Amino acid sequence: MKTPVARYYCPPEIYDLTYSDFVQDVAPHVAAARAAGGPVLEACCGNGRLMLPTLEAGVDCDGFDLDPNMLADLERKLAERGLTAGLHHADMRDFSLPRRYARVVIPFNSFGHNLTQEDQLATLRCCRAHLDPGGHLTIVMFHPDAAKLLQFDGTPRPAREIPNIFRPGTVRVIDAATSDRVAQINTVRRVVELIDPSGTVTATHEFDFQIRYVWNPEMELLLRLAGFPRWEVRPLFKGYAAGAGDPYETGRKIEEGDILAWTAWKN
Q: Could you tell me the residue range of the domain that residue 244 belongs to?
């Protein structure tokens, strides 16, 4: 029996505001999709932060997400841009689509919303079933930082303050995180404040989400058990925050806190 999904469904507009400065992964994501040599499926596509530039680059790309509001917002954005894609309302642990793909990708830590090994394996096996022979699955996921986990004591801490992309003012993100280091689950209470040019908070949005982090050797075992005979992992960059730097050069050793790209081949 599947565990309940850790629902992280902020309104689409708030999602766009919160992640407007997360851009480091866009170019590598699009480049890998273009190099796949066939259709691409994006799991947990949300309202299109990565899918829209992929489609604009001419890639044949479908997507699915569990949140109907995010999908509806993506449909609106597609229509505004004159783009088309196969969109599906689906759970990454149990989906069945008519196509097979050269590349399936689970970007931006979304794999971490699987809170048990049962859910993780179900997702991996379902993704593998949707790959063409020779196709590959890529999971983009942070590697845990032990020192940072020790700081997660539930204290609210400002994460960042960024320009409001929709109107004058800024957006302040405040996170209060706790870490269950036995279950490997981080629980976050996030507060998003909209601030006008005078410094007045005009609106506040609160929501909770959970992420189950995965250690390197653990991911290798998960991929092996899910039926993938070959895989590789490489660090992309240090964190998603603005100013985190350009993508790393090939061959760099993995460090704690890195954003990693796991790629596993069906055959």
A: 12-144+213-265
Instruction: List own/partner pairs for 67-75 with CB under 8 A and 24 or more apart.
Output: 67/7, 67/9, 69/9, 69/11, 69/12, 70/9, 70/12, 70/15, 70/46, 71/45, 71/47, 72/12, 73/12, 73/47, 73/48, 74/45, 74/46, 74/47, 74/48
- Whether 6 maps to a domain, the answer reads no
- Which is it for strands 40-43 and 101-106: parallel, antiparallel or unpaired? parallel
Q: Within this chain, do residues 243 and 115 fall inside the same structural domain, yes or no? A: yes
Average pLDDT for consecutive 10-residue bins of the chain (267 residues)?
A: 54 94 93 97 98 98 96 98 98 97 98 97 98 97 95 96 97 98 97 97 95 96 98 87 56 89 96
Q: What is the DSSP letter of 261?
A: E
**Contacts of 157-162 spanning 24+ positions with Cβ under 8 A:** 160/21, 160/241, 160/242, 161/195, 162/17, 162/20, 162/21, 162/242
CA distance 114 to 108: 13
pTM of the predicted structure, to 2 decimals: 0.93
